[in-house]
């Protein structure tokens, strides 16, 4: 101050300092507010949204099944379904369901008493 030959009163310096501090506080507050808004927007964008629309089921190709994948996967699935082990399991399952439902009757192994007299 002596070099520039300017004199200030201490109250003017104090008020200038308070003004700078208030501006710095406002800027920090604005920065925090913007950060909180960005964070809340990010959280809202990551939330699960419930859709009211039902996708049309008739437009999809039903022949490929639910696991419509590459041609190689289709080939492997077809080979698996045609293998002997799977066919045997299917036959056992069909036989078991037929027995449970009563379609196949077991032959009687007990001897029936006959009148000999």
From TrEMBL:
Region (Disordered): 35-73
Compositionally skewed regions (Low complexity) per UniProt: 57-71
PANTHER family: OS08G0169600 PROTEIN, RNA POLYMERASE II TRANSCRIPTION FACTOR SIII SUBUNIT A
Protein's name in the database: Uncharacterized protein
Taxonomic lineage from the root: Eukaryota, Viridiplantae, Streptophyta, Embryophyta, Tracheophyta
């Amino acid at each position: 101050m002596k070099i520039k030959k300017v004199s200030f009163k201490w109250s003017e310096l104090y008020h200038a300092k308070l003004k700078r501090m208030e501006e710095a506080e406002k800027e920090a507050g604005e920065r925090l507010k913007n950060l909180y808004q960005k964070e809340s927007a990010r959280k809202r964008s990551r939330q699960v949204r419930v859709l009211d629309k039902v996708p049309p089921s008739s437009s999809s190709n039903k022949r490929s099944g639910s696991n419509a994948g590459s041609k190689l996967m289709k080939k492997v699935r077809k080979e698996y379904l045609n293998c002997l082990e799977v066919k045997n399991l299917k036959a056992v399952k069909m036989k078991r369901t037929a027995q449970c439902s009563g379609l196949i009757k077991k032959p009687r192994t007990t001897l029936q008493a006959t009148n000999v007299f």
